[in-house]
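Design job #97: recover the sequence.
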């Protein structure tokens, strides 16, 4: 009986020693993990501080930038900004006129052209009209052709044909002046004719 008790005691002592060893190993591993976490935390803190510093530097640089130069007001005659477009209409700085930016491809007689411009709705609560021939001709750049418009102009849908004006031919009131947007030349056209006659609406500056 005493021998058996002695064996049990030895077995328990061995198991205790194993558990102690495992506990110490676990503690060592946990200490290693804690050390690694502490190191990672320190690294993340350093990165965060560096990021904050970089962001502060960027904000300081942005704040130091000069304000953006706004486009000139319409009618100021600034040569480098002749046309100021907003996607709906185009201001011509040389004349102060506001032109329809995107033109349609509908051919109209004189009466329909006048009505079209009067009813034109570009979503800006402005009232448009058919331009006089001198106004329509002011868009022409005779150094260009097909269409004869200044290089880099913002207009779209320009037809290479006749555009009506509101100016009546003095000797014959059944005709009105048109501008040909292939060469930019003017010629008169019968007010009733439709074929090849297009419309480009305008408004005066407010």
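Job complete. Output follows.
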């Amino acid at each position: 009986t005493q021998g058996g008790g002695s064996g049990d005691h030895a077995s328990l002592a061995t198991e205790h020693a194993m558990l102690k060893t495992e506990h110490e190993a676990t503690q060592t591993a946990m200490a290693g993990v804690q050390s690694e976490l502490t190191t990672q935390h320190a690294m993340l803190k350093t990165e965060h501080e560096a990021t904050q510093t970089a962001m502060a530097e960027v904000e300081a640089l942005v704040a130091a930038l000069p304000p953006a130069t706004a486009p000139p007001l319409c009618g100021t005659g600034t040569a480098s900004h002749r046309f100021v477009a907003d996607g709906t209409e185009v201001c011509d700085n040389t004349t102060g006129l506001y032109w329809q930016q995107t033109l349609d491809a509908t051919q109209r007689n004189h009466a329909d052209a006048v009505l079209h411009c009067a009813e034109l709705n570009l979503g800006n609560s402005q009232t448009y009209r058919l331009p006089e021939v001198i106004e329509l001709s002011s868009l022409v750049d005779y150094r260009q052709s097909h269409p004869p418009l200044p290089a880099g102009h913002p207009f779209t849908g320009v037809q290479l044909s006749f555009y009506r004006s509101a100016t009546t031919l003095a000797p014959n009131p059944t005709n009105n002046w048109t501008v040909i947007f292939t060469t930019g030349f003017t010629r008169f056209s019968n007010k009733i004719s439709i074929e090849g006659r297009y419309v480009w609406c305008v408004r005066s500056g407010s």
